[in-house]
Amino acid sequence: MTGLWGFSQEGLARANDSLLRYALRMPAPQPQPRRETAELVRRLRDYFASDAAVEVAAAYLFGSQAEGRSHRESDVDVAVLLPWSEASDSEQAFEHRLRLITDLSQALGTDAVDVVVLNQASPLFGRAVVQRGVRIFVGDAEAAHAYRRDVQLLAADLEPFVQRHRRRLLQRLREPASP
Fold it and tell me: Which residues pair with 81 in a beta bridge?
């Protein structure tokens, strides 16, 4: 009998077993002490407060570093809210993102840096960043507050549609594949 994407149930079970055996051999990531996260936040704040920094309305540390579950292979995830005058042009926003990645990599001494421009992110992602991330810098308090308010309202408006889509997708995945 074939299942999802035309694979046999036996084939899927074998693949699942192989993945599980592989995953069990891998060492579990070891959390970093909070002291290292505090040092990371200090270095990020120093960068954004410097005259050499790209102008941002707000900056957040998010992901495993912000949630205290980082390990030696974790990258540094930073989300920035650019001034709207600079974020309206996609090319300019992309150039700011690249410069921030370069600058932060130098400031932190690692190439494992990722930067997200919140002005271009989905409302659901933006809400997750402002709710669970660590705000590390505010360059324009009014713009930062307006973004936080607006992104949470937009995400709340979208949530019912996203939930309905997820339910339908899960339902379709549970249904047997038709020949």
Answer: 58
